[in-house]
Specification:
The protein is an alpha/beta fold. It has a domain of 95 residues: Ribosomal protein L13 (Ribosomal Protein L13p, Chain: A, Alpha-Beta Complex). The protein contains 5 helices and 6 strands; from the N terminus they run βαβαββαααββ. The strands form 2 sheets. It has a 4-stranded parallel sheet, with helices on one face. Strands 3-4 form a two-stranded antiparallel ribbon. Helix 1 packs across helix 4. It is globular.
């Protein structure tokens, strides 16, 4: 007698995708980014499939009130390159927090996603905003607490 295992693969068409609202007020950056990555990938669902997009949309508000522990505001440096000779640019986390606090959360989540084409699809489902207001009220996001 031959046993066969039948499993249902979920993808973005068959998995139910909802909208989740997370308030970053007073949260640590690493814990917030880990939770957001878990929701984006769909690891919090029983039908998690690692090679498919079965996660939810995430809206993060109050990005300017995120907490960085230790001396990370002065010591943590973000680099990018302009692709020209000696075109490396750097900015500290404190300066980036003043200019674009959304980018700190965006970069932390992006670095935790798998390095593949799937990550490009998943990161488009992350919406980060500086204040309390966001344009996604029509989607009725469900507020979720960071554990």
């Amino acid at each position: 007698m031959k046993l066969t295992k039948t499993t249902k693969q979920f993808d973005s068409k068959t998995a139910a995708q909802k909208w989740v609202l997370i308030d970053a007020n007073g949260e640590n950056l690493g814990r917030l980014a880990t939770r957001v990555t878990e929701i984006l990938r769909g690891k919090n669902k029983p039908q998690f499939t690692p090679n498919n997009d079965c996660g939810d949309f995430v809206v993060v508000i109050n990005a300017e009130k995120i907490n960085l522990t230790g001396n990370k505001l002065e010591d943590k440096v973000y680099f990018h390159h302009s692709q020209y000779i000696s075109g490396i640019k750097s900015i500290t986390a404190g300066n980036l927090m003043k200019k674009k606090p959304e980018d700190i959360i965006y970069k932390a989540v992006k670095s935790m996603l798998p390095k593949s084409k799937l990550s490009n699809a998943l990161i488009t489902k992350l919406k980060v905003y500086k204040g309390e207001n966001h344009p996604h009220q029509a989607q009725q996001p469900v507020k979720e607490e960071i554990k």
